[in-house]
Known about the structure:
This protein is of the alpha+beta class. The chain has a single domain (3-133), classed as Alpha-Beta Complex (endopeptidase fold (from Nostoc punctiforme)), CATH 3.90.1720.10. Helix content is 19%, strand content 29%. Strand 5 and strand 6 (105-110) form a beta hairpin. Helix 1 packs across helix 2. The chain is globular.
Amino acid sequence: xxxxxxxxxxxxxxxxxxxxxxxxxxxxxxxxxxxxxxxxxxxxxxxxxxxxxxxxxxxxxxxxxxxxxxxxxxxxxxxxxxxxxxxxxxxxxxxxxxxxxxxxxxxxxxxxxxxxxxxxxxxxxxxxxxxxxxxxxxx
Length: 139
């Protein structure tokens, strides 16, 4: 297992139970799905260039996708590994970021439950994009 991915997954797991808040970036006051990714990455020393101006529903997310690479993330190939950041669609205009705890479970900000949760990856979710931390450079 990629140790940087494992570190990111562990950082995300430490956020389980934090309150939900749209556009939230502070675990003490609340996180949304972008906030979970920002907080977990920050705990591993990576600063995410976060999207702005999004809502709970967004017809198009394409303008924000380049931010992942600009933040130093790389495209993830299958299979899903701990620490992978997945962009999923839950339904029409419902895009959502989750962090894989392992190949079967994810950590994410659940608006309905009003908190960050760990749950099985739902097979009905469509994965639109996946990123992971770049492997440490040798040298």
